[in-house]
């Protein structure tokens, strides 16, 4: 029999699911099975599960025919489990390194009915914080491994399911299943602890509990928080079925219930105002209904006061106490927000500019005005340019104006409406435009107005670590991630080129945007291009039709890394007498070679022309690999510094494993690869790469974005593109 079954229900957690699965499977522990339950998740959770199951026999996937909710999904997984013990893990959390061996050792040596492990809370920004569970363990005096009668204060430990590993036979004996609704942990955990004869506590941190900024029930205002009453009633019903076993611990269990109900229904971040009095009186009903026969002595302090007010059904007094607490908290929050406001704007804007921007923000929005920007105001290009072009055709009532830096104003295409950064027109556009479109973030001083719509298009499929993921790598040491989150909180829409991008954006920028799975707007031209477009691109570059053209486009490196050795003249020679090398990239070695077959195109404005003119792409960790793959032409990865780059900058995927073509670890290998049969090199790998990353590139991505953002239409994700 397998020692441990881990049940993993998933619904809308695609951004975190791989991290969860890796935290379990990469520990090298084999005495485990993973029961992965796809609760009819509308995102890519089911596909991710299937991908892992295809390469790891420890994973079994259950795809539910309809969404049933977390509790029932756990029940479905439990019914398929075969392990001696069961661990219900939430798929937006992770297990800590080495935790499976630690847990397995405790299960084998102690043979508990329930093993409770310590955990840490992980936050979007900053270091994890260990829980206070050790204090609860210490306060629960009595022998470790005893039941609740010997250690009644174990009731005061957190009631969550995910830090408890349970003997499967005990669940069958107690006929314990999860009930539907929010707070399903309550009606499962407390009957379980009452029924367990051996409860062993483990002080080692084995679980990382993610504190999510979006999607967490505890941060959601919703009448469904009232379901906590139903689960406490069910908990008492299941406990009463166990007879006198619970009698000695009823007082401490009662105190825990009242504390939890006040934490839940007395929290203004959970219930709307019109339900607070109702929830208070219902708590008072529960107080009277389950009050132990011997009475109850409230604790001292603020909690004790609230207990007494509940017992007397003194709603007005209770509401007054809560109002004072809210006012104190609001004052603290307002002071903190004011400090952030001054830090975010005063450090970047002069007094007059700040005053003018605030004045413009007080004036009405222009419902038919869109402000566009790309690459920190450097140019008119990329996804925003493709979106603007589509908007001219599909939403002609929306006037588009570009924001351009002072140094880049001379490079704006003729006839392009634009404003210069720092001008009054610039601040007016930021303050008055209904739509703001960018492929990076706008500056910190920008304040999103009610009614404004921010569209984040990004600038390619991510290979390197992005957003909050950079916190774990040296390249992110100087970043202000709290400020990054405030900037990203402005997004209403986030464009995804592929499913991988969606996963990364939702994890790296955990904000309340809508993911637009449309494909990459800037690749529409490539998806529609044919032989005539390629010929025109070559003509614009002065490249003869009969030459074999290699385009070298590496990504930049974080200091102290530098670009790898590269000799474009030697590469051109390897291509033969009709070979040519186009070099695009800052500080590429040999880009200024006098060889006529080497052409430096770093300053060429339209990068799509370079793709169309090239027969072969040589690159590395750059998003250009995904763009060029749309053309279905050979790609070679030149990655001699993969280990160093990944250690310094991080990576969101293994570009070597998933490479669309041959991989060169040295320049000599690169020369050898380009001297071989290039037309059909690694065509199978390229096809698999295109299926995974280019399936939505059908030439209509920008149209889908415009229809959703500017016209308010619902758009259907594109179907996979058939092979060329």
UniProtKB/TrEMBL annotation:
Q: Which domain of life is it from?
A: Bacteria
Signal sequence bounds = none
Taking every annotated instance into account, which residue ranges of this chain make up the domain Glycosyltransferase 2-like? 5-172
The keyword Cell membrane appears for this protein: yes
Check the record and name the Pfam families matching this protein. Answer: Glycos_transf_2, Glyphos_transf
The record gives the membrane topology as: Peripheral membrane protein
Q: Which GO terms describe its biological process?
A: teichoic acid biosynthetic process
* Ranges annotated as spanning the membrane: none
Keywords, A to Z, come to:
Cell membrane, Membrane, Teichoic acid biosynthesis, Transferase
The molecular function terms of the Gene Ontology recorded here are:
CDP-glycerol glycerophosphotransferase activity
Q: Where in the cell is it found?
A: Cell membrane
- Gene Ontology cellular-component terms listed: plasma membrane
User: InterPro entries from the entry?
Assistant: Glycerophosphate_synth, Glyco_trans_2-like, Nucleotide-diphossugar_trans, TagF_C, TagF_N, Teichoic_Acid_Biosynth
Similarity annotation: Belongs to the CDP-glycerol glycerophosphotransferase family.
This chain belongs to the protein called Glycosyl transferase
